[in-house]
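Good morning C.,

I know you're traveling, so I'll keep this short. The sequence:
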Amino acid sequence: MASGTRFRSRDRSREQGSSAPRSQRSAPPARAQGQTGALHLKVRPGQSGSFRLQRIVLLEIAAAALLVGWIVGPFALMPAAVVAVALVLLAFVRRRGRSLPEWLATARALRARQRRAASTPIPPGTEPGLAPAVECDPGLRTSAYSARDRRPVGVIGDGTFVTAVLQVEADATALRAERSRQPLPLGLVRDTLDVDDIHLESAQIVLHTQPAPALHLPQQSVAVSNYAPLQEQTGAPAVRITWIALKLDPELCPEA
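The tokens, ready to paste straight into the viewer:
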């Protein structure tokens, strides 16, 4: 998924996508179309660091409890040992790949979400795939709009923003293009951020691809033997669907 986002001095922070910022929008479209995108793996080091720090703190508390029990006397040493063992278990025992404190926090958050979802009525006509998002943001609403050429446009918003979702269609030659080619020029999406007096906040490109044949099929299957020559020639996926989500923030463009 590629995205381009404006930056403003507000409390909430936004991540920069693959589109260029406003200072670089004066670049020629030909140069933007010729650039090739690259995938980058984002690593979140904060989770592992916090887990190590949490483990060290629990071990220090366990050692302090044993030390206090040993200083007070033998009657206090036994309860202190029980507390220390419990803290060591919390530090080292993992459940479903998570530490016990993290798992307990996740379980409490899940129960709170279930209670909130039970008390929050889902508006009639809400799509099942959108129900989890409505549980998190009850003000979220969706609607459909037909343009002049009768092409449907999906609109979603909660009163503070409006996002229009467009499906990009292509001819048969573009769908069978090489895998290395960009299915949609990013320069065109960048130019849509400023149209006349309308200034959009961001534009996101969502690309869905489905390989052919399916990856779970054995090599001896008929589908694999039929699709193998096509994959050797083009390498294009069997299904490629592209959506563009254009977000309008009223604070950025109140006249719109």
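Safe travels,
E.
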